[in-house]
Amino acid sequence: GTGVEKHEIVGEAASFPAGSTVFVWSRVLNGEGNIKHVWKLDGKDVWTANLAVGSKRWSTQSRRAIPKAGNWSVDVQTEAGASLGTVSFTVQ
Hints:
Layout: E1 3-5, E2 8-10, E3 15-16, E4 20-29, E5 33-41, E6 44-53, E7 57-66, E8 70-78, E9 83-91
Parallel strand pairs: 3-9
Antiparallel strand pairs: 1-2, 4-7, 5-6, 5-8, 8-9
């Protein structure tokens, strides 16, 4: 999305213009420790955000300014690297 308000994503879309700041938001239920948002451009790792989980019901986010067009994805992972889900979007 384009932001987070009141613990929810706003501006959710499948495509963003180059130069946008894109937010990825995660709701964690019954979790502890940390999760990771692994940002990828055209399937290649670009950046990893390590995010603390503060309680059994938690929301967290990472964001990136995206200057380059391409096919982006963010893999949400456990601390050990197991995939919890993936968000995909295009930057034009």
